[in-house]
Amino acid sequence: QEKSCHLSAALLGEDSEISQEQLYELLKYAALGRCHNAAQPSWCRIYHQSHLAGVVVVVLHEMSQLHFYRFYLQFKHLRKVFRHRFTLAPSANFPVSLYGEGTNLKPQNTPQGLTSTSSECTTKSSDLQCDPIIQRYGGKKQGLTSYTLTLEEQKKNDYPIEGSPGCKGYISTECDQQRTDSSPLFGLDCEMCLTAKGNEVTRVSLVDARGQCLLNELVKPESTVVNYRTRFSGITRKMLLPVKTRLSDIQTRLKKMLPHDAVLVGHSLNSDLQALEMIHPSVIDTSLLFARSEGRRFKLKFLAKAVLGKEIQCEKKLGHDPTEDARAALELAQFFIEQGPTKVAELNLEMLLTAEKLAEVSQNKAVLQPQGCGFQEQLNEPPPLSKPCFLDCLQVTGQKPLLLGRQGLDSSGLCQSNLSTSNKQILQRALEDVPLSKFSIIQFSLGPEYLASHLHAGLHEKVRSKLTDMLTIYAGPFEENFCMKSVKKEFGRCGPIQSLTVVTETFQPYVCIQYEVLEAAQLAVESLNGAEVAGSCIKVQRPVTAAMLDCNVLIKELELDVENEGVIYVAGLKKSLTETDLQEEFSQLKDLETLFLPKDLQSGKHRNCCFLKFQKTQSAVNALEAINGWTMNGSELRSRNALAPGHLWKWIWQMNHSNGKQGKHIFYEKMEQLSDSEQDLRKNVKKLDQHIKKLYRSLQNNTLCVVLFPGVNSTHGSQPGLGLMGIKDDEGRSTC
């Protein structure tokens, strides 16, 4: 059974702020594993990285943490799916920091003595014993039966097997005769289109041992075509309109054409046989025949050029030619059998691939540099001389990253870049191309009309204003000479107080209390409304403003936020208690994973509250029941479910303590400008969330998905970014 990947990250409080370097560390390890000195990131852990199906990074251009919480209700998908969230330090040049330090491989980075000629790229015989081909097959020539896949190898590589649960209804070729080294070879290749059923065959080619085409037939799929994948399949709607041939017809013809001792040859032939829904007992898979280390595989196009000296799958052609691919796979198998493993190993294919990739990168950069679209040129900075970024390393391992977006993010030639004019176009291209790439960066944008600096400043003020209102409660009425100390003590048991003032504009005195955390304000509303405080039965409520009309909805959604699962807030702690003391006091609580004790970021002193994160949601529910009413060191504890994710606490504190450089008249002017486009902005954010939802649903299981609000760092001010991440599981959610 295939292992599923999962992600572990304890992101609470100060630990939830991640630098650009730490983000790069995560992406590099996810993309490369232990190759190229990639190590597990220091701040989180990916389990079973080798089983990752791919990495997808969604970048929301020029958006910050501010946008996420201003439009929290609109980002319905993001907040419900991703379990891990972190504050991201803003960067003046985000794309470069995302890719890594160096994005310009120089020719001198090529391994010493390496050129493109095969004679200089051959390997010394003393090194051959380490070659994966020699380790698998030995050095001596053998007959073709030595290179056919065993039953276990077929099972391991997802070949259709007689009697397997997933092969119900599959047709056998009935080629059950004993194979010998003189059994005939046949090259097979299929092109598929994406239908409502999945991948279905739309073209089949079969060639004999002399390379002559025996079958080259278009096939009408059973289900409606969702995506023709014309760029790769070469299939168009017009081509399939007159076609009458069905899969069952092709199955019948193949059974008749293949002799009983036939050996089928193909590149990743399992995909073709699965699409054909046919079972064949004897196969040679050239993607496995030309063995590589760590389960990697050479592409057919590269092998055809490096081994046979043939150019196939040319970019000028519309899609792949299955006859050409079937013939190339057949000839590669024949070369391997005739020449033997030693001769193949001496070609040093890994070195040839490295040389090809480095030459391609250098050529792309030479072409792109005069256009003046590079990051360094935009910033008038000299090009970095540091080590290559992980995108270079991906190139060398045969994986070309994909970049889709409006903005010219990549000037290095490292990515399959495609600039689109709208988010909808970007989404359509992503749905088509992301499944074909191991590493993808998809960039969406709200558009320049929503990213102007004055709008961003207004947005900041609006968020701060609403957050202040949510942190504020009014309590009263009190008697004329009430004891302020008693009030402060009672409300202080709910959490740390930012300010406490008496309201004198009313007939009887009221008190305005602003807390430092959302949980404290909510706890005060829930536990003290209708209670007797300082000799008076009081009402506790939040300010009533237009912006606060949806406060209850927002509180409910925050409580249900996936990142708050298993997290509870505890108040009423003595400030003298240390983190060690609390760990000991709460040690009896089952499944306690992390304890976070907030600090005043100026004085460094602990607050009178903490957050507890549990491994299981039910354990958090049980702890909540147990803690309410606890007395710790003479102080009664109060607790509730967490509302503000760990990364948000520090941001709230900073917003509360910012001086507010603009005057009130400027603030209202900016609010007026913002309100004109507020409704459109909400609609666009909602559409953006829907786009990400569609993209996420299309991803394979075990795909790491990272959504980034990069933050803003400009002359108009700085706003931290936000990252959301998770590995998609069978239920379409991100795993812990």
From TrEMBL:
InterPro entries: Nucleotide-bd_a/b_plait_sf, RBD_domain_sf, REX1-like_exo, REXO1/3/4-like, Ribonucl_H, RNaseH-like_sf, RNaseH_sf, RRM_dom. Keywords: Exonuclease, Hydrolase, Nuclease, RNA-binding. It comes from the Eukaryota. GO terms for molecular function: exonuclease activity; RNA binding. Residues 471-545, 566-644 form the RRM domain. The keyword RNA-binding applies. One of its GO terms (cellular component) is nucleus. Gene3D superfamilies: 3.30.70.330, Ribonuclease H-like superfamily/Ribonuclease H. Pfam families: RNase_T, RRM_1. This is REXO5 exonuclease. It comes from Loxia leucoptera.
